[in-house]
Write a structure and sequence with these properties.
alpha/beta; Rossmann fold; 2 domains; six-stranded parallel sheet; 11 helices; about 15% strand; elongated; Glyco_trans_9; ADP-heptose-lipopolysaccharide heptosyltransferase activity; transferase; LPS_LOS_Heptosyltrfase; glycosyltransferase
Length: about 300
């Protein structure tokens, strides 16, 4: 914790997608510990704000307007100046949030950790975007004596899953990914084959995803009638609850995969070179990587799932 008689006002900036938010949890927790007696605020996307509030890590959560209009930047400027922050950790560290540093003109400026030119603690080095996000956070926070844990603590995230009526053992299948990155998706037909292999063993396949993965779930269910389709039926806490009690999980490089791994579910992450650098977290997550998904077969995935560390 920083010294001083008065609590400091500290801001963390993290926008980005759901998976990026989950990968930032170790950094959030470490910053909270370091500033235990300070007022800690998070600036994030509106879609992520409820989850941030649920975590209890922040005293205040502000919502970024996301737009790139003059009016949106003016709203951000008002929030930043009204916060009277003593220090800012810009974990997003992209051009958009670099501009937030300059929105404080004519000053005064707080201590600022990020990639903005002129920041007091500029975190910029060759290859910064070629290393996993968790490694970037370790390097960025080191000058402040802040050390993120090796794995995230999401003990606060859980839910009753009895309403789904799924008997153990079951395995979570996460066949989707960002709509703009289909190359990061293991073919859904192979997920169907994997579901059949699991069902033959008496393990119920449970498909997770949002409404945009509904077509993928239908393909899997057509191949394996025993599969349970939960696409668009689960909240974030319910996904965590399912993961805590699952036999295991397998998924592409996408937010729900990072979430189920982060809560401790034995998770096999399927990666090809479209996902370099590979982002992975969780105490029981294993990376299954091939240069191309054409080289990744069902037998190899099933064998890798069998070798996962068991769930508690």
């Amino acid at each position: 914790m920083d010294s001083g008689t008065e609590p400091r006002r500290v801001l963390v900036i993290k926008l980005g997608a759901f998976g990026d938010f989950i990968l930032a949890q170790t950094a959030f927790s470490a910053i909270r510990r370091h500033h235990a007696a300070d007022h800690l605020t998070l600036l994030t996307l509106p879609s992520l704000a409820p989850l941030a509030r649920l975590s209890g890590l922040f005293d205040e959560v502000l919502e970024d307007p996301r737009e790139r209009s003059f009016g949106a930047y003016r709203r951000v400027r008002r929030q930043l100046r009204a916060g009277r922050f003593d220090r800012v950790y810009d974990l997003q560290a992209q051009r958009r949030t670099d501009r937030y540093w300059w929105l404080l003109a004519p000053g005064p400026w707080p201590e600022w950790s990020g990639t903005a030119w002129g920041a007091s603690h500029r975190d910029r080095y060759p290859g910064r975007r070629k290393v996993p996000a968790t490694e970037r956070y370790i390097r960025q926070l080191a000058p402040f004596g802040i050390v993120p844990d090796a794995v995230p603590d999401l003990s606060w995230l859980d839910a009753d899953i009895g309403g789904f009526g799924i008997a153990a053992p079951y395995a979570l299948l996460i066949p989707g990914c960002s709509p703009g990155r289909p190359e990061k998706r293991w073919p859904v037909e192979r997920y169907g084959e994997l579901a059949c292999a699991l069902a033959t063993r008496g393990i119920t396949p449970v498909v997770l995803g949002t409404a945009i993965e509904a077509d993928l779930a239908r393909v899997i269910a057509a191949a394996c009638p025993q599969a349970v389709d939960l696409t668009s039926r689960t909240s974030v806490p319910e996904i965590a609850g399912l993961a805590r009690r699952a036999w295991g999980a397998v998924g592409n490089d996408t937010g729900p995969t990072h979430l189920v791994a982060a809560v401790g579910c034995p998770t096999l992450g399927l990666f090809c070179d479209a996902s370099i650098p590979i982002q992975a977290n969780g105490p029981r997550m294993v990376v299954h990587h091939r240069l191309s998904f054409a080289d990744m077969d069902v037998a190899g995935v099933l064998a890798a799932m069998d070798a996962l560390p068991p769930n508690r």
